[in-house]
Specification:
This protein is 29% helix and 23% strand. The chain is an alpha+beta fold. The protein is built from seven helices and eight strands. The strands form three sheets. The chain has a three-stranded mixed β-sheet with strand order 1-2-5, with helices on one face. Strands 6-7-8 form a three-stranded antiparallel β-sheet. A two-stranded antiparallel sheet has the order 3-4. The protein is elongated and about 75 Å long.
Length: 293
């Protein structure tokens, strides 16, 4: 089709942090229009979009660590298996045997700063995932940060050390240390081996978590208080404290909105969101089967 015959009308719609099914529905319309020789309108409904749009790449991680008698980390191993590419190919073009698009690099981001001796950190290719994959907010780092920081907590508990002090012992970057200390000060952090030792007798068990991340040279530290109903399993986020060091801020209000939005979206992804499958299809195809906060 000649370029001068293509008319694009832009309509403001919902935002998304990654890639949705936009290109696929456009290709659907082009293929159908060519087949019937007339203009057509193709509209994906919610269940079409959730069923066929690209998905965040799945990731398998395996972590091991070793401690000496004094509780010092003597070895660290972090291996992950992840699709090496974000798949930008168009599904309709694949179906008609004329593929358009390509696989582009990038999914496994780590942001590794701990100064452990004998560290083995590596990523392995695994592209047999069965769905089209694409980037999502903070590509790859949401998952790797969760795994690293959760395992750091396990090592700190095994070493019988406060999780904040345990982290600081193996960090040298002043900005990372700064956001951790700033979050701890605002929170009112009191050093202890574990927030709650042993099984709690009350119905609601309480916990406290701390984690940090370096994303595009912005340092962020977060502390959260959490309650778990031991009868129903319901999880409640009681309090969240966040410290950011992302350089010169032009719009403080915009930065505040970003931080608050990140908290809400992270809680939603952690507690509620899950893509489900059967042997043939994605089954989480509406807001009932894929709830968000």
């Amino acid at each position: 089709m000649p370029v001068d015959k293509v008319e694009v009308r832009w309509v403001e719609a919902a935002g998304q942090y990654g890639r949705n099914g936009l290109e696929h529905v456009i290709a659907d319309a082009a293929i159908v229009s060519r087949a019937v020789g007339r203009p057509v309108r193709v509209e994906w409904m919610r269940w079409d979009s959730h069923g066929w749009d690209p998905k965040e790449p799945p990731l398998v991680q395996d972590l091991e660590g070793a401690l000496d008698a004094q509780g010092n980390v003597t070895a660290w191993r972090h291996h992950m298996w992840v699709p090496t590419f974000s798949d930008t190919r168009l599904l309709p073009s694949e179906l008609i045997g004329k593929p358009v698009g390509e696989k582009s690099l990038g999914n496994a981001a780590i942001g590794y700063e701990y100064t452990f001796d004998n560290a083995d950190v590596s990523s392995h290719n695994e592209n047999r995932v069965g769905v089209i994959t694409a980037w999502m907010r903070a590509p790859g780092q949401f998952e790797t940060t969760f795994a690293m920081e959760a395992f750091i907590d396990e090592l700190a508990a095994a070493a019988k050390q406060d999780p904040l002090e345990f982290r600081l012992k193996y960090l040298k970057e002043p900005r990372t240390i700064g956001v951790l200390k700033a979050a701890a000060e605002r929170y009112g952090w009191q050093p202890r081996v574990a927030f709650s030792a042993g099984k709690q007798s009350s119905r609601k068990a309480k916990g406290r978590g701390i984690a940090w991340v370096n994303r595009d040279d912005s340092r962020v530290a977060t502390i959260a208080d959490v309650e778990v109903d031991q009868q129903t399993g319901e999880i409640r986020i009681v309090r969240v404290v966040v410290a950011h060091d992302n350089g010169f801020v032009i719009s403080p209000d915009g930065m505040r909105n970003q931080i608050e939005g990140n908290i809400v979206q992270s809680i939603s992804r952690t507690l509620h969101e899950e893509v489900t499958f059967d042997h043939a299809h994605v089954t989480s195809r509406d807001w009932a089967s894929y709830p968000i906060l």
